[in-house]
């Protein structure tokens, strides 16, 4: 995880040599080679999740999937952010939003092997660890308050191997521990311990029945 109050250079050094970079030595998101390696890790993650064998045709298919396109545009947006050229970084952010529907700010940092199964509607402004999965219309950010726990003022810090479910939101200066799972439709504004599962306990039930042959649109109790 990242320490609060780091400069761009210190952030790169921690990513290279700190806790978050232990299992990916030499991957620097502020270099072309490092960004390329991170994208390769994203592509491998998609291939593993989809159980696709290696072939040229299937690799070409994976490259044009919204999941990979969203991460590709964000990785290069983050690269230019670290290089101190915000105009290019925000241009790529806008392109990502228009093409895939993913709203991922240039400052957002993913570890390796990130996966967005359905990027449309995903909103991210945070620091995330390795092998994180964000499902459709999930939101991570909020900008609530000034406290910095490592993701930026008022923003979350997400650990490694975290899954965030459909339509869930992680808001404010919260820490999500490694291997945590956030279920669908959760609004989370508190810290989550490593390995924990957070879920909304709502049961679906039949609330009305329409009689056979009734095409009026009336719902009869």
Can you describe this structure?
The chain is α/β, with parallel strands linked by helices and 221 residues long. It has 5 helices and 12 strands. It has one domain: 3 Solenoid (UDP N-Acetylglucosamine Acyltransferase, domain 1), CATH 2.160.10. The chain has a 5-stranded parallel β-sheet with strand order 1-2-5-8-11. Residues 12-25 have low confidence and may be disordered.
Quick summary of this structure?
Helices cover 31% and strands 12% of the residues. The chain has 221 residues and is of the alpha/beta class. The strands form 3 sheets. It has a 5-stranded parallel β-sheet. The protein has a 4-stranded parallel β-sheet with strand order 4-7-10-12, with no helix packed on it. A 3-stranded parallel β-sheet has the order 3-6-9, with no helix packed on it.
Features:
single chain, 221 residues, alpha/beta, UDP N-Acetylglucosamine Acyltransferase, domain 1, five-stranded parallel β-sheet, four-stranded parallel β-sheet, 31% helix
């Amino acid at each position: 995880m990242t320490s609060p109050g780091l400069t761009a250079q210190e952030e790169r050094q921690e990513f290279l040599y700190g806790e978050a970079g232990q299992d990916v030595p030499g991957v620097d998101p502020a270099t072309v080679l490092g960004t390329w390696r991170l994208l390769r890790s994203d592509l491998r993650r998609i291939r593993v999740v989809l159980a696709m064998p290696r072939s040229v045709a299937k690799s070409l298919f994976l490259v044009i999937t919204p999941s990979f396109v969203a991460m590709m545009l964000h990785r290069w947006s983050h690269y230019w952010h670290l290089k101190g050229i915000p105009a290019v970084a925000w241009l790529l952010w806008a392109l990502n939003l228009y093409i895939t529907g993913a709203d991922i700010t240039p400052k957002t940092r993913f570890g390796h092997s990130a996966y967005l199964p359905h990027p449309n509607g995903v909103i991210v402004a945070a620091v995330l660890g390795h092998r994180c999965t964000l499902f459709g219309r999930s939101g991570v950010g909020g900008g609530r308050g000034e406290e910095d726990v490592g993701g930026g003022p008022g923003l979350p810090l997400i650990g490694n191997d975290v899954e965030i479910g459909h339509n869930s939101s992680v808001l404010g200066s919260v820490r999500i521990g490694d291997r945590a799972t956030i279920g669908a439709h959760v609004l989370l504004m508190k810290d989550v311990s490593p390995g924990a599962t957070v879920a909304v306990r709502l049961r679906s039930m039949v609330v009305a029945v329409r009689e056979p042959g009734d095409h009026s649109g009336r719902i009869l109790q």
